[in-house]
Design goal:
Strand content: 15-25%
Distance between the termini: 14 Å
Structural class: alpha/beta
Number of helices: 12
Radius of gyration: 25 Å
Largest sheet: 8 strands, mixed
Shape: elongated
């Protein structure tokens, strides 16, 4: 069972936030895509924090209805004007190149070049993020202000990239628990220099793996660092026989911005992960939003596809597409802050703590209230307050049919208060664990 007290030096907001922000900063310059050396470099860095198992799946392998694509790598890319000056340079920002651009080296007039240029007129100083994963195409992204400065002349265009048979790479870390039932924690590792939409999720999942590795666990925890869409589809295809072990799951992204806590429910809508996160947010003292499932977003839509229907929700602050910096150069190191990263970490850890401790019990003295005073448990009004009330609620609803989360929700108390009461009653032999298989998993 998770207890933050077990941690080797319990994490504080400052230490966790700073460490998460360092991970974001260190990985920010790396050019990532759905395949290639950028993903490998990112996974090597994560491996310095937690022991990842690296999987390489070859190009051409059929995974469900998809096929592993060719591997893409890039060395350089630029646009030069007629004076030989680089006006767009991949080395200044890896967002300048459309992801998966095929190699090109040629000269062309501005009118032809414009068909390969992408900007954001509403944000003229920002560079957009664009991809062409499954198209044989190339392109450059630039600020709209840069585009307006281009004159009607001939330009030299170079994309020094390769697109050839290789591998799709992803990382996995499994922490065994008391039982084989699993909690799946996933993030995507396929975006280049985007701090919130990509790196904040990577840093949070890495820190969860690091800190949960220091405690005893009820569930087995599986952490996935995968390229979006094709990565989750690949993992599901390769692990189809074992997905029934997944009892709870979270996809984590966009957790470093100042927006309010947001959770998108699983397709099931009432899974215990949905209840645990909702309970955590409700008692956080913060503004929050709970969204119903929809089949658009991150990899929760793959895990929740009807053939799997896994209990996996999506944990964010401001969701994808709902902040103007999304998929632009403005999603930079100034946009994410250590204090928001830390808050997201602790909210996520709190929800996981609820899951890992959500047992059901049987009252061993169910006929009338047992005398708590003689056992040193009952303090009486007003000193007892919520603690006494938690004891009474746990005794009353510990009939083998209610979990601790059920009791906390019914009583309007925090899970921590109810768990503390259950621990005290267990120590006095007034409770025992229920043998019934409830929906704690």
């Amino acid at each position: 069972m998770i207890s933050v007290n077990e941690l080797n030096g319990p994490p504080t907001s400052g230490t966790v936030g700073d460490e998460m922000y360092r991970i974001v900063c260190q990985l920010y310059p790396v050019c990532r895509s759905i395949t290639g050396n950028g993903v490998r470099e990112t996974l090597r860095h994560i491996s310095s924090h937690i022991p990842l198992t690296i999987h390489e799946i070859p190009t051409g392998k059929q995974v469900l209805d998809w096929t592993i694509p060719k591997e893409w790598n890039i060395k350089d890319a630029y646009i030069k004007n007629s004076r030989g000056e680089k006006i767009i340079d991949f080395k200044n920002s890896n967002l300048h190149v459309v992801g998966y651009s095929v190699p090109v080296k040629q000269r062309m007039p501005l009118e032809e070049l414009k068909g390969h240029l992408f900007t954001l007129p509403d944000h003229p100083e920002w560079i957009p993020f664009r991809t062409a994963y499954y198209k044989q195409n190339w392109g450059f992204c630039l600020s709209h202000a840069q585009l307006q400065e281009l004159t009607d002349e001939e330009y030299e265009v170079c994309v020094d990239s390769s697109l050839k048979p290789g591998f799709l790479t992803y990382g996995e870390y499994v922490l065994p628990g008391k039982c084989a039932d699993e909690v799946l924690i996933s993030c995507h590792v396929c975006h280049p220099s985007l701090a919130n939409d990509n790196l904040s999720g990577i840093s949070l999942v890495t820190m969860l793996g690091k800190y949960l590795g220091q405690v005893s666990l009820h569930y087995t925890y599986r952490f996935l660092f995968i390229p979006s869409t094709i990565g989750s589809i690949t993992w599901l295809s390769l692990n189809e026989s074992g997905v029934q072990n997944i009892k709870h799951g979270l996809v984590i992204a966009c957790v470093g911005d100042p927006g309010r806590l947001t959770y998108k429910k699983s397709r099931q809508g009432d899974a215990n992960i949905d209840k645990a996160v909702s309970h955590t947010f409700k008692h956080s003292g913060q503004d929050f939003e709970i969204l119903d499932f929809c089949p658009y977003g991150y990899d929760e839509r793959q895990f929740c596809s009807p053939g799997f229907n896994l209990p996996v929700g999506c944990f964010t602050r401001t969701p994808n597409g709902r902040f103007s910096e999304y998929h632009t150069s403005a999603d930079n190191l100034d946009f994410v802050r250590p204090q928001y990263l830390a808050d997201s970490f602790f909210q996520c850890l709190s929800a996981i703590t609820v899951l890992d401790n959500n047992n059901a019990y049987l009252n061993q003295n169910p006929k009338g209230e047992p005398q708590l005073g003689k056992r040193g448990l009952y303090r009486g009004y007003p000193s007892g307050g919520a603690d006494d009330l938690a004891l009474l609620w746990v005794l009353n609803l510990s009939d083998g049919n209610h979990t601790l989360l059920d009791i906390a929700e019914r009583a309007g108390l925090t899970f921590a208060a109810v768990k503390s009461a259950a621990d005290a009653l267990l120590a006095c032999d007034l409770l025992r664990e229920s043998p019934n298989e409830l929906s704690t998993g």
